[in-house]
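Rotation project, supervised by the postdoc (A.L.). Task for the rotation student: set up a whole-complex structure prediction and record inputs and outputs verbatim in this book. Inputs entered:
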Amino acid sequence: MSTPMLKVAVLVAPAIHPVSGRPCTHPADSAALALGLKLAGSSERLTVLYAGAAADEALAGYLAQGASCVTVLPTAEDADIAPLLAAQIADAELVLCGTRAGGGQGSALLPYQLAEELEAPLLPDALSVAIKGGSVEIEQFLPKGQRRSLAAALPVVVTVHERAVPALPYSHARKEAGKVRRLMPVAAKAAEWRYEPAGRRARPLVAASRASGHERMLGAIAADDGKTTGLVVKQGDPVEKAQVLLDYLRDHQLVDF
Amino acid sequence: MTFTLAYALTGLFWLGAALLSLGLVRRAALWRQGRAAPVALGWLMTIPKRYFVDLHHVVARDPFIAKAHVAVAGGAVAVLALAALNYGLMLYLPALDALMLLAALLMLFGAVLVRSRRKAPPARLSKGAWNRLPKSLLAFAVGSALAALLALSGNAFGAAAQGLALLALAGLVLGGAELALGVGLGGPMKHAVAGLLHLAFHPRQDRFSGDKRSTDLKPINLVGKDYGVETPADFAWNRLLSFDACVQCGKCEAACPAYAAGQPLNPKKLIQDMVTGMAAGSGPAYAGNPHPGQAGKVRQGNPHQPIVGGLLDPETLWSCTTCRACVEECPMLIEHVDTVVSLRRHVTLTRGEVPGKGREALANLRDTDTVGGYPLAARYHWAIDLNVPVLLPGEHTDWLLMAGEGAFDMRYQRALRALVKVLKAAGLKVAVLGEVEPDCGDLARRLGDEATFQQLAGKMMNTLGRYRFNRIVTPDPHLFHCLKNEYPVLGGRYDVEHHSQVLADLLERGAVPLKADAAPLPATTYHDPCYLGRYNGETDAPRRVFKGIGIKVVEMERSGRKGRCCGWGGGASFTDIPGERRIPDMRMDDIRATGAEQVAVACPNCTAMLEGVVGPRPEVVELAELVAARLAN
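Outputs recorded:
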C-alpha cells in the first residue's frame, strides 16, 4: 500500500464536541490521519500539522490515534492560516486534511486556498487514496451512494471524507508517548473577511389551491353524482370493466402493454 | 529383613526430599520470572489459619470432597511427617510405626473416596493426569500402610515378608513420585506446595482480614508507564504462583455465565493458559474443557510473548462479565477477575482495541462524562416535577442521591421516580447534584481503561468535595461499589449506601407510611446484582425490604452470593462477544423456573438486561417500585 519515500502532511484541528462542547478529535481529520499513517509508512515522512490557538490538550486525541508528533503553528484566532500552512508543508508531496474542520480557522474553504497557495490540484472528499507511480487516484464520495474516480499528479491536496478509513483506536499509551511540538509564533495578517448584509429572506411558496387536502381529494375521486372528474363504471361484465381500467392506466402511461 | 526395609525407607525418604526440593527450586524459578511484589516471609505463619478457615470455608461447600480431602491430605501429611521423624532421622521406633499405620489407613480411606468420584466425574473436572492422581494416592497409602505393618510385625510374615516389602517399596516409589517429581514437572501435586505458598503470599492480603471483602480493582501507576500485563512475565510473581495453585476442579467453569452461554471463555482454561505461558509450552497435558468453540486449538506460550493473540483470543478476554462467580467458587482462592482486567488494561491502554460498542462508550466517557454520550444536564430530567432540590455549594443535605447512568434510561427513570417518592414519603432530606455529576468510571475501569477511570474518579471526587452532605444513596450497585471500595485508595472516602439498605432501614423503623395490604401480591423472585451481592456481600438488605412490604420471595437456585450475572457487568454488554445463548436469556430461564410472575431487581443494568429478554416472560420490577406501590396516599 505505502509507496517508499512519499512525504505526507496531514492537517488536523480540534473539533468541538456536539454534546459537551469540549475539544475532541474530528472524524474527518482522524480519517485523514489514519490514511496518512498508512500511506507514509513511517512517522519520519509524516508531518501532522495544526495552525491555530488551541491548547495542547485539545490535540491529545490525535496523538492517541497514532500521530507521534503534532506540530503546532501558533497563530491568533483570526489569522489567515493558508499561506502559513503552505509555507510549512511546501515540500510535502501529499497533503491530507479532513473535508472540513470541526473548529478553529480550518473552514471548508481552507483546502482550496491551500491548493492555490501550493499550486497543486485538489481532490475533494476522498474515500480511498491510492498512489500509482507519480500520481494519486482517489475514490470520491458523492451523495446517495454515488462514487467517482479522480486522479492527479503529485504533489496534490486531498480532502478526506470522515467515512474513508476508521481512525486508529484511542490509546492512552500513544497519547503519553506522543509529543506536541510548538513552532515559533508567526505574525500573520488577519483573514480578510468582507461583511455584507444578508439578503431578503426567501418568500414561502404560495399554494396553487386554497382548498383543503380533503376537498382536493374529493374532487379527484369518482362519485355517482357525475360532478367530479372521475368515472364510476357499473354497467357491463367484468371484462368490459377491466378494459376501462386498463384504458385509464394506458392513458396515464402507468402500464406499457 | 525389617532393618533392610527400614534403611531402604530412609534412603527413599531422603531421595524423595531431595527430588522435591529440586523440583521446588525449578518451579520457583518459573514464578520468579514475574515482577516483584511486596511480600514478607512472616506471612508464611498465616498458612495454617488461612488453610483451615478461609480455604476450608470454600471447600466445605462440597461436603463429600471436603471430607475426602481432609482424610487423604491429612493422612498423607501425617504419614510424611512420621516418616521424616522415624525414617528420615533413623529413629525406627515401633510406636511411630503404629501411628504411621493409622495415618496410612486414614489416607487410604480418603484415596478410596477420591477414586470413587473419578468413576463418573462431573464434566467440570479435568481428566488426564488428574485421573491418575487418585491411583497414585492409593499406591502411596497402600505402600506406607504395608511398610508400617511390616515394621511392626517383626517376623510374623515369614517368607512372605520379602515379597510384601518389595510391594510396599513399589507403592511408595510410585505414589511418592507423584509428589517428589510432580512439583518440578508441573504435575497435579504441585497444587499442594503452590497452594500453601499462594495462601501465604496471596496478592490480596486483605481477603483474610476480618469480614472485609477484598473485591476492589487495584490502581496501576500510569505515570510510571505501567500499562497492565502483556506477557506472563508482566504478572507479579505471586500471581504466577497463584496460577500454579489451580487444582482444575472446574468450580469456576460451572459458575461462569459466559461459559454457560457458549462464549469463548472457560475460567479454568484461562488460568491453565497462564500456566502454559509461564512454563513455556503448548499445554498438551491439559485435559479439561476448552474455551467454548476452540476445541483442539494448540497455542504456544512463552513467558516473554504477548498473551493476547498468542495464548488467548481477544474474544476470551472480552467475554468476562467480571461477576466474580469464579472467584467466589475457587477453593484455591485464585483471582480470575484480576487476571482478566490486568490483560484488558494492556490491550486497552496500549492499543485501544476494545471490541463492539466498548470503544464508543469509552470515547463518550472521555468526551461527555457519560457512557451513552448524553448531556450531563439531562441526568436529572426525570426528577423535574418531583421537587428534588439540586444541591448548591454551601448548602447541606442529609442524603445525596446519585442516580448514575441509569438516569438516562427511560425504563429506569420509573424506578428512580419511585425511589424519590419513597424517600420523600419517609421524610428524608434528599438532594441531587444535577448537571455536575459525572460518571463514576466503573465501566471504563472494567474495560481496562484505567486512564479514563482515574480521570473520572478525580473529577467525581473533586465535585463531591465541593458539596456538603452526610451520606450518599444510590440505586446503582456499580456506582456504590466504586464509591465505597475503589475510591478510598485514591483518596475519596464517603459514607455510601445502596438504596436497598436505606429502604430496609426505613421500613424496619416504620418510617415509610404504607397502605394496608389489599391486593394479593404476585409470586416474586429476586435477582441479586453481582456488584451488590458478591462484591459487597449485601444479600440481606433487599430481602429485608421484601419482608417490610410483605412480599414472600421465591428464591432461585442460584441466588445471593451464588447469584448468576445478568450479562452486563464488566462492559460485556458493550463488547458483546457472540455465544450460543445470551446470558440474560439464561437468567430469565432461572427466573421462570421458580414459577414467579415477577422478578425484582436492584440495579439499573440488571433492569436493562432482563427487560431486554424477548417473548413472554415474568415482569421486571425494581425494588423501589415495589415499595412505592405500597405507599399510603
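Student's summary: Residues 19 and 61 of chain A are 17 Å apart (CA to CA).
Supervisor addendum: The mean pLDDT of chain A is 87.
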